[in-house]
Design brief:
The chain is of the alpha/beta class. Helix content is 33%, strand content 22%. It has 21 helices and 30 strands.
Length: 653
């Protein structure tokens, strides 16, 4: 399909009903499940909890709601590790593969449920031998190796809360998270592989622990093999402690509201927020959403969530959701461009992946690299595609559907957050007609609305602030150590409604379209314009691979739109093309959205989770001192953009 054909397809507003071949085996094909949840949302979630999980004690109350504090399945007891492992082995599925793991250098491991259970029990016994007890906190700072989910499940088995810190974060970020949680144990590795280089995890861990008095022991996995210092009495090697442990470790029943993990997310202040997720409600919703959003058939599917376990996507959809459902998952250590830009597609072909879940940022990068890389590989095993992490522009959606899905795979665009714990707005692929770029509708049992700045529901069609109108099982239970910050941050803006800062609109059929952070809305001559809308219009042009826009101060209009544009291969930047892009945005959105400046660049500043740091681009556009760049995947990118900005000045009308 040519770019012109894609443009025409989007212009005509084509929709994508579930393919007949997909509906024939889909778990859900009608609207009955929505109607069931609408009649009795609490009862609906109770049925999911009972059907999807093993409970050692039944709950006596489905929901206790003391706004903004929720307790789900009160009085119920269960163990997360038992639900992810023991019950599958006991049911005779121990030989099923849990993880097909591929290391970046090319080493591989195939781990069955029985083998994973044994390893988790050994690790749980090792944690106990190192003094960890129920209620303690354990920090985990590792690359994408199987021992990472093993460590998480070992904590869950004994009732210790884990706090995973992404392996790309600095020692300062690790230190702050250890100290806030007052963790007793740190689990790390000598290093991790990334683009053929070693990320020195133990070195960063040592720097963090030097200022973390709560740490008593550090358990270190040997992965990359370089020499690392080991402090006597504190540091112990994984291979000296874990393999020798017995493979029997009781999965102690936990209260449904037992803290399962902390996961830190950035806040408007310098102090990161320790998001609290508990046991029963969280596992219920991640199991439900993983099963039905991805139409999982665990006997036949090979599922790959190409995220990092250090983010909530990895917690919910690499570890807990897939394992609770008995799925076979691919887990990959490295980057999509090592040793070449077809690594993802070689993995899909090698393991016959049937479900792929990745981020719009990655998809736009694949677009920039071009379709020749996926064409080298047999991707016919794929039957469902998913996107996560940010709104996906329609052009990237269609490219993904065409070049990766072969025009046969539904694309489930999912909206959710670290705080929500699980997917909230998404199609059900056998039941929902898709629109490229829309996350479609709230899932069964989820209450969502769009309100104006004073909290009134916006009529359909219309846009505003996305809110959640009732509690849900996997919701955050608070911010660690700071209940008032939790109340103020998420429930303080609109009375009785959860709001975490995202904007959205509904079209005339009620479909939800996510617009990104409310902070990323520009005010141009009194008109509110979303950065996502302008970026999508730019990427709609055949020359553009990726774009980011910001509002910059303008004496006439209050703010003017500044665009940063990456071109596709074969296109050269010049003033003529800049004018063409401005005209294109005017045509797609309207003259009010026409960018005043366009700077052509080769990269954009992104966090390690792939999100564009528009704040830094605003610093560049306003000629301000650059803000904090420590969370960037490559801090040098923004320096390069600023140098180019000052040297050539962007094309300006």
């Amino acid at each position: 399909m040519s770019d012109a054909t894609i443009e025409a397809l989007l212009a005509e507003g084509r929709t994508f009903p579930p393919p007949e071949h997909f509906k024939k085996q889909a778990l859900i094909v009608g609207s009955e499940i929505y109607e069931e949840a609408d009649r009795d949302a609490e009862g609906f979630w109770a049925r999911q909890a009972a059907d999807l999980l093993d409970w050692s004690e039944d709950w006596h109350t489905i929901l206790e709601w003391d706004l903004p504090f929720a307790k789900w399945f009160v009085g119920g007891k269960l163990n997360v590790a038992h639900n992810c492992l023991d019950r599958h082995v006991a049911a005779g599925r121990g030989d099923r593969v849990a993880y097909l793991w591929e290391g970046e250098p090319g080493d591989t491991r195939t781990i069955t449920y029985a083998e994973l259970l044994d390893e988790v029990c050994r690790a749980a016994n090792a944690l106990v031998s190192l003094g960890v007890r129920k209620g303690d906190r354990v920090n985990i700072y590792m690359g994408m190796v199987p021992e990472l989910p093993v460590a998480m499940l070992a904590c869950a088995r004994i009732g210790a809360a884990h706090s995973v810190v992404f392996g790309g974060f600095s020692s300062d970020a690790l230190r702050d998270r250890i100290n806030d949680a007052e963790a007793k144990l740190l689990i790390t590795a000598d290093g991790a592989w990334r683009r053929g280089q070693v990320v020195p995890l133990k070195q960063s861990a040592d720097e963090a622990m030097a200022q973390s008095p709560s740490i008593e022991h550090c358990l270190v996995l040997r992965r990359t093999g370089q020499d690392v210092p080991m402090e006597r009495g504190r540091d112990v090697w994984w291979h000296d402690v874990v393999p020798q442990q017995p493979t029997e470790a009781p999965a102690e029943p936990m209260d449904s509201e037992q803290l399962l993990y902390l996961l830190y997310t950035s806040g408007t202040t310098a102090k990161p927020k320790g998001i609290m997720h508990t046991t029963g409600g969280y596992l219920t919703q991640v199991a439900f959403t993983h099963k039905y959003v991805f139409d999982l058939h665990p006997e036949t599917d090979v599922y790959w969530c190409a995220a990092d376990v250090g983010w909530v996507t990895g917690h919910s959809y690499i570890v807990y959701g897939p394992l609770a459902n008995g799925a076979t998952s691919v887990m990959y250590e490295g980057t999509p461009d090592f040793p070449d830009k077809d690594r993802f597609w070689s993995i899909v072909e090698k393991y016959k992946v049937s479900i792929l879940y990745t981020a719009p940022t990655a998809i736009r990068t694949f677009m920039k690299w071009g379709p020749d890389y996926p064409r080298k590989h047999d991707l016919s095993s794929l039957r469902l595609l998913g996107t996560v992490g940010e709104p996906i522009n329609p052009e990237a959606w269609v490219w993904y559907w065409e070049h990766i899905g072969g025009e046969r795979c539904p694309v489930v665009d999912t909206w959710w957050q670290t705080e929500t714990g699980a997917i909230m707005i998404s199609p059900l692929p056998g039941a929902t007609t898709l629109k490229p770029g829309s996350a479609t509708f709230p899932l069964p049992g989820i209450g969502a609305d769009i309100v104006d700045d004073v909290g009134n529901s916006v009529p359909i069609p219309g846009g505003g602030n996305l809110v959640l109108t009732r509690p849900w099982p996997s919701m955050l239970r608070g911010i660690w150590g700071d209940p008032e910050r939790y109340r103020d941050t998420y429930w303080g803006r609109f009375d009785g409604k959860y709001f975490a800062g995202d904007g959205a609109k509904r079209d005339d059929e009620g479909y939800f379209w996510l617009l990104g952070r409310i902070d990323d809305v520009m005010n141009i001559s009194g008109h509110r314009i979303s950065t996502t809308e302008v970026e999508s219009a730019l990427v709609d042009h055949s020359a553009v691979a990726e774009a980011a826009v910001v509002g910059r101060a303008d004496a006439t209009t209050g703010q003017a739109i500044g665009a940063f544009v990456i071109l596709r291969a074969g296109f050269e930047p010049d003033d003529g093309l800049a004018g063409e892009l401005r005209d294109h945005v005017s045509k797609v959105i309207g003259p009010i959205a026409r960018p005043k400046t366009i700077l052509f660049t080769e990269e954009l500043p992104k966090t390690r989770s792939g999100k564009i740091m528009r704040r830094l681009l605003r610093n560049v556009a306003e000629d301000e001192v650059l803000g904090d760049t420590t969370t960037l995947a490559d801090p040098s990118v923004v320096d390069g953009i600023k140098a180019r900005y000052l040297a050539q000045q962007p094309a300006e009308e």
